[in-house]
Each structure stands twice: as C-alpha cells, then as structure tokens.
Known about the structure:
Blueprint: H1 2-33, E1 41-44, H2 48-61, H3 65-71, E2 72-80, E3 83-85, H4 87-99, E4 103-117, E5 127-139, E6 142-155, E7 158-165, H5 169-174
Parallel strand pairs: 2-7
Antiparallel strand pairs: 1-4, 2-3, 4-5, 5-6, 6-7
Helix pairs in contact: 2-3
Amino acid sequence: MKKVLLSAVIVSALFACGTKTETTSTSTASATASVPAEAFGYTLNSSENINTVKKAINAGANFDTTTFKTVYSDTATIYDNKTKQTISENMKMASVFKSKGVTMKVESIGDIWETISFKPDNRDFSDYVNVYFDASFIKGTQKSTIRVNAVFALKDGKIVREWDTYDSAPVMEMLK
Length: 176
C-alpha cells in the first residue's frame, strides 16, 4: 500500500509540475500579447537614447563641450540640483573646474533604463532615461566620489531636459 501511495504522490507531483509549466508558458505568451489597461508605457534596459545619455555623461565628465553639444537640443534645459541652466551655462562649469585644478571621472554607471510612454506628457515628452552613476572629483591628492541621480527627457534622439540630483558639498569643497 505504501508503494502505491508513494507512486501516486510522485505521479501527482510530476503532473502538477507539467501543468504549472504549461500555465506559465501560456501566461508569458498572454502577458507579451496584451498590455494591462492601466499601463502608460514600457521600460527598456538598452536603447539608442540610453547610449545618448551615456555619451552625454562621459562628455560632461571629460569637459568635452563639442560632444556635449551634439547630444543636446539647442534649447535644452538642465536642472543641476534645481538650478536651471542652458547648455552653455552648464558647460561654463568646465572652465571653473579646470581653473581650480579639478578633474572629473565617471567611476561607474549603475542602474540605467529608459521609460517610454504611449503618449506624451504635459511637457510633450514621452521618452525618459533614468540613471544612477558614481563620479569622482579629483584635485591633487584629494578625491571625492559622489552618487548622481539623473533623469533625461529625449525627443528626436536629442536630450531636451536634464534633472541632476547629488550632494554638492564635496564638489564645492574641491573648488575652494
């Protein structure tokens, strides 16, 4: 009797696993075939807009104004810790850093993703890239690494808005 019960349990377990796998496959196919009604867009972990943002981050860190200007629209606005700036105003900081002997290095780009909305928001943007990266500021033997959270709005492959948030105290200390 024990062998019959054990065999029944094993057969039931195998049947349950087989059914679960089929259900999962069907669920996955259904999920990709339809979008929930409350969804407003989708997210990507690799895209041309993400590549554009990486290019902008590296150009900014290298004080490369030529490349920097190629990835931003002419009318782009940058909010650097809530301070509204044009591209030119933002890039003027490069000369301040250079005059104080401060260099910048992107240590790592952590999480980065693009969110694409099905319809533009109230600013007429539908593509946003979010990123967390670590940047070091170096002056002589001093080095300070900060975490930056940035959000970029893109339109037609160009950055049109940028919002940066970071602890500016270590950076200001380097500029003294």
